[in-house]
Amino acid sequence: xxxxxxxxxxxxxxDGGMSAHPATTTSDAPAPGDRTVLLAAPRGYCAGVDRAxxxxxxxxxxxxxxxxxxxxxxxxxxxxxxxEARGAIFVEELDEVPEGATVVFSAHxxxxxxxxxxxxxxxxxxxxxxxxxxxxxxxxxxxxxxDYDILLIGHEGHEEVEGTAGEAPRHITLVQSPDDxxxxxxxxxxxxxxxxxxxxxxxxxxxTVGRIREQFPNLLDPPSDDICYATQNxxxxxxxxxxGADLVLVVGSGNSSNSVRLVEVAxxxxxxxxxxxxxxxxxxxxxxDAVESVAVTSGASVPEDLVEGVLDYLTERGYPAAxxxxxxxxxxxFALPPELRKDMxxxxxx
Length: 350
What we know:
This protein is α/β, with parallel strands linked by helices. It is 34% helix and 18% strand.
């Protein structure tokens, strides 16, 4: 587990930390005919997202425009557009970046091959990979060094999965669902380990691990959970607010794995309906037909002003002010990337 350090700046949308406490709710189930709006806490920005967004902002302040970013810095359309307006240029691959330019690697991480390509092209790199993703990279290398076959639970094509798989490509096999397990083949059934993408559904991941362990009883676990604290906390929070809710609204972009999982968790936890929206403009009026109880949450890469927009939308349609449901306290903050901090100190900005 990486060490938490103080960060030079934080966003007001960041709820803070790591330690979970027993759930405490501020309301009971609504009486018939009473409208309620419940708001999950924690929600929104996690420490890794906060660090990544601030990294791009500080890089623009320090180096000037443009600063290039490989892939979306975090999976949120509004965040990307805001940073583009400030001078960030988002690219898919490094061959789109002029030689010698500054490029930031996204919070999802990159493979060693990407680092090598950047070095070959003389790019100045700032690595904003979430430290919890970096932890998974370390685990992949360690298991590979011990010659284990590694079963990586995740979604094909996701940047985080590509980065982790690139750490030990000859040792890693992707497992996307419990249904994939029956077809797995390994070199030695006694030398198998598993890792996972950090933003998955906790319940589904453990179901997949259970299937793998049935097939390979000596399956080796990672030293600690790979699914990040924020993902787990937000899933636990939505479980609380979804119980008996007529409607759960999850604020988050469609390519945000953890936001999509929150919709699934809400439905599994008893919500009658659940929808993901980028912002309030995507809410459909018919979703609110005969809806008395609404619950609201947001993915780990969502600025708080987008949640406030959804709450304003509900208020305008006669719903009361939201009541928070607290399931965890968070206080974790990650330091900015060391290469950026070094340049900030040299410029007298730290």
